[in-house]
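Appendix B. Chain record.
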Amino acid sequence: MSVHLYNSLTGRKEPFVPLDGRKVRMYSCGPTVYNYFHIGNARAFVVFDMVRRYLRYRGYEVAFVQNFTDVDDKLIARANELGTTVDDVASRYIEAYYEDATALGIESADVHPRVTAVMAEIIAFIAALVEKGYAYGAGGDVFYDTARFSDYGKLSGQTIGDLQAGSRVDVSELKRSAEDFVLWKAAKPGEPAWDSPWGAGRPGWHIECSAMIHKYLGEHIDIHGGGHDLMFPHHENEIAQSEARFGAPLARWFMHNGYININNEKMSKSLGNSVFVHDLVQRYDPRALRMFLLASHYRNPINYSDEVMAQMVAALSRIETCRDHLGLRLAEAHLPEGDAPDLAAYETRFVRAMDDDINTGDAMGVLFDLVRDANTYMRGTAVSKAGLRGWLTKLDGWLGLFGLLPRAPLVLDEHVERMVAERTALRKARDFAGADRIREQLQGLGIELEDTAQGVRWRRAQ
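Structure tokens predicted for this chain:
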């Protein structure tokens, strides 16, 4: 079976055939570095790290680019808030990105370009669109003329008519049409600016990725990835820009991961429920976070909660305990050989799952089947377990769970204290089922409770 990937452009799974033999050119949208990245961002970063890993395992040579947006309205506002420069904010959070991404086992891209480092290419790209009649200057700004691009909306299904009837467009008196979007913004006092044929200014958001893709990967690529929220308008506008300039498809595949809810509510700034990975890796083993982000198919929505994370920590512990036990039993070579599981069958099932649109949920199920069978096998009269342990390490290695990181601190003391207090309140209210659920969550986090006459005592499991 060959690798099949779901293509957002066509709405179906298709056999993966790169443009250039076994070479794959892949781009994924990176963070706007005005803060730590949140768990929604992390899902995209982990998913496309997984896509890259698996394609390499299947014998492809992957050139992968992921950008940093380091000049933007959000960075300017953050710099003003902190009383520093935009460059200082960007540099601070780029460093934080690498720290948190490494904790999650995310490999660095081959290139991580910053917008400010490709300004000449961005300006040249806009100039080419103006020359071709797809863009126009107005009052120091430059806008893309969406009416000139007949395929506008082919990715998201948002037609010009839909946009005219809706409200998902920026309003400006300088535009020819409300649906047009900005390529270059005229300079405002006190903001970073670069010289251009249209006057001093800075780029719009969408043109950055088109210019970076062209510089580092060429006119046409195999895979463009990102979160579902980027499909419109960001990726739609990238298509319009790049295809207007080069007259051919920007990407053969567009891949989009699903949303993350927080305690069954949509994560959003307005609700104030954003969860930052920088904080989470202090509470949980980062490998458990990676497991959570890969435990469901990447296109499905997932829900984050402390209860779910407790389950992930417990599941990670089962894998680690099994592997450790296999290691301890390796010394028992004097025992007779027993009937080991058919190890190659696990890889066959793993590959079948991953070939089917990178189905990490089913692939992880194969890993846990191996853990179950290994535990059963160890309870028999069996032998040398080196092969079995090797296969376990191999499977979880493909998912990027082990071999990357030391064990991390699981949970902060203050978080434990809050959960213990909540459990105590539930017990006083005689909600013993709720109290038991919190005890189970804490056990999953490696916390043991002891109810005493003086109150609840807790300690970390050894």
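Further analysis of this model is presented in Appendix C.
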